[in-house]
Design brief:
Blueprint (H helix, E strand, L loop, with lengths): L3 E6 L14 H17 L4 H6 L2 E2 L2 E8 L8 E11 L3 E10 L4 E10 L1 E2 L8 H4 L1 H10 L4
Antiparallel strand pairs: 1-4, 2-7, 3-6, 4-5, 5-6
């Protein structure tokens, strides 16, 4: 199972008046991690879109534990939590430099045709992605 690790410096614009990261920024960080994991698997989101495929989020679940603050760095760990041929479940853990977990959770995605937004089987349409997801999903 491959796990991408991406470090991000908390920027001032991501924080509130107290210097605490606003919750919405964690979703952006998860997207950064997900994009890096896809790159680590040997693929590119932009090429997927050029090929007429989109991968929208259909569910996101994120639990917050410890606040990240301006001036700190966080690491986004991202992996394939599960995969069933149609849906991809990505797992995330965002930690501070001292190891404290700021947030963790999952997002669920499907691939759809860009023109119709109709979902399709990744296994059938994107066999190389299917193989990578099968080989790298979390073992239960």
């Amino acid at each position: 199972m491959k796990i991408s690790k991406t470090t991000v410096d908390v920027r001032y614009a991501e924080t509130d008046q107290m210097g605490v990261v606003h919750h919405s920024n964690y979703f952006v960080w998860c997207e950064i991690g997900r994009t890096e994991l896809i790159r680590l698997l040997g693929f590119d989101y932009s090429q997927l879109e050029k090929d007429g495929v989109l991968a929208p989020v259909i569910h996101f679940d994120l639990s917050y534990k410890v606040a990240a603050r301006y001036g700190e760095s966080v690491t986004i760990s991202t992996w394939i939590e599960d995969y069933d041929g149609l849906r991809v479940y990505y797992g995330y853990e965002i930690t501070k430099e001292n190891g404290d977990v700021c947030a963790y959770g999952t997002s669920t995605h499907v691939c759809v045709h860009k023109d119709t937004f109709r979902p399709f089987s990744i296994k059938k349409r994107l066999p190389e992605w299917h193989k990578a997801y099968e080989e790298n999903k979390r073992k239960k």
